[in-house]
Amino acid sequence: MKTKKERKAEFKNLLITGGCGFIGSNFIRYLINNRDFSGRIINIDKLTYAGNPENLTDIAVNFASRYIFKKVDICHAAKLKDIFSRYDVDAVCHFAAESHVDRSIKAPGNFIQTNIVGTFNLLETAKARKDKFKLFHHISTDEVYGSLDARGLFREDTPYRPNSPYSASKAASDYLVRAYHKTFGLPVTISNCSNNYGPYQFPEKLIPLSILNALEGKKLPVYGDGKNIRDWLYVEDHCEAIWTIMKSGTIGETYNIGGNAEMTNISTVRMICDILDDIKPAKDGKSRRRLITFVQDRPGHDRRYAIDFSKLKKELDWSPHESFQSGLRKTILWYLSQKKWVKNIKTGSYRKWIKEQYGSQQCSRNQ
Ligand code: NAD
Ligand code: DAU
Question: Could you tell me if residue 212 is inside a domain?
Fold first, then answer.
């Protein structure tokens, strides 16, 4: 088995799944501009409500020779086989998933299909590439570990105790990835990360929802008593951690990624109100904190997440750069500057545009 010192990862044709979503699109932008990577990116995405190719318009134009996009569902095994052989795929970074906990409570079916069956299809296709295949990096979540009380941190050896259909489906996918390494020798790495925030996040998640609602003077729903804790990580720091693991992580290993930024939800929402009041005061001059509304709790709501990322720090010298205060301000400024993007999402016109551009056919922009 190769270790980080022996391994020199050079990927020629990197398949990225779910690259039109929040973290995937940030990762593609990060990687294609990175001097350490000169290969080609093949982005496959089903373009669900969460996938928006507009997140990567600049990349499609400026890197046309190194960036390919195909509208593909990872649940479609035959299409995956075709993509892997047509583009001579030698590595995968797997983001594609149904990602929103509340949706998994209302309708879990797609979570089982995409997160479990889709991951299985990718693993099977990668396995069939045999020696041509160099790495399957699986993007996962800290939610697989369940919930913490006031003390303690999630470590890589913390037992899995998923509590929502979303986290259960991600746990199943992690186990499949692990099994394909142990049983078939597939070269894999896994990362389990805490809550991300930053540009291009779909406004169903707490931070962008609160920013956009506050700007419109709408209510800011806070579940339960607002004292649930999340450990926030700026998305660019996550991208750097993923690439660090892909380049130098030990094959077969799992790495936790976290932000060192534990916050109660109520503090997060209050911070958003205060930053907005500072940058763009409300017309009536009143504080946006008045919009905060406590609502019914999420069923099975995990109380606290907090990550111990000392393995990643010690072995691969990674730590986050952004503080929560500075990252949140940057994020708010980004949403304020992206009027067209926000309008397209809010009015749903991005869906119309996707239909016109891509229809229901498999499609490509650059090839
Ligand atoms: P997202 O919902 O913004 O994006 C998911 C992307 O996957 C979308 O572009 C969607 O169209 C695509 N997709 C969904 N089903 C698909 C299918 N069947 N075939 C192909 N593409 C499909 O999600 P995100 O927040 O960017 O999360 C990306 C990954 O990171 C997920 O695996 C998630 O579990 C994990 N993760 C997210 C966070 C977070 O805070 N957002 C934290 C840790 C881990
Ligand atoms: O921890 C990593 C996970 O973080 C990822 O695996 C998931 O894909 C991602 O969606 C995120 O899950 P959360 O459920 O923690 O994120 P969300 O933004 O939905 O909620 C954050 C916290 O805020 C959570 O405690 C629920 C609460 N919340 C959320 C919403 C949408 C509210 O109080 N009000 C809201 O309106």
Answer: no
